[in-house]
Specification:
With 162 residues, the protein is mostly beta strands. It has three helices and twelve strands, in the order H-E-E-E-E-E-H-E-H-E-E-E-E-E-E.
Length: 162
């Protein structure tokens, strides 16, 4: 059975553009930093590696996010790659920035919240910011990292893959 021909859409259709982007499966991360009133977190799927030497990673934050002022100015932050059994944690920090109740975490040397039990964790120092339209691309130099066993939490087509 043949595949139907793709239909092209005008790029100004933001709903369909977002749907098209959702065809690309991504992992899910939680980025943490120290906010003015304590630990803060944000769920993000915009994580990517940049360089092995030096060790650089990036993620991007929406300029419209209420959490943007903290994350866009953080000099230190951590990126946590989530496993399939951390979907509740993902959903929690997608809604609430500061609800660390019952979360297994500890502060880093730079007072960044480090969530324990993730597939991988990268402790970063700010390396650069780049304008990315309605987002800011935040590049971090990795100072420490951790790896654990498990299966990654994957997001595509508006839902988590099972």
């Amino acid at each position: 059975m043949g595949q139907a021909l793709a239909k092209e859409y005008p790029v100004d259709n933001k709903v369909l553009f977002r749907q098209a982007l959702g065809q690309f499966a991504t992992g899910v991360t939680i980025v943490t930093a120290q906010g003015p009133n304590g630990p803060m977190a944000i769920t993000a799927n915009s994580f990517n590696s940049v360089s092995l030497d030096p060790q650089l990673v990036l993620w991007s934050s929406s300029k419209d996010s209420k959490r943007y002022p903290v994350f866009s100015t953080a000099q230190h932050y951590a990126i946590h790659i989530l496993s399939t059994d951390q979907i509740d944690l993902c959903k929690r920090f997608a809604k609430a920035a500061d609800d660390f109740s019952g979360v297994d975490w500890s502060p880093s040397l730079h007072n960044v919240p480090l969530i324990n039990g993730c597939l991988a964790r990268f402790e970063c120092g700010l390396s650069a910011h780049h304008d990315g339209g309605d987002h800011t691309i935040i590049v971090g130099q990795v100072h420490n990292f951790e790896i654990n066993a498990g299966n990654p939490l994957i997001f595509a087509q508006g839902d988590f893959l099972k």
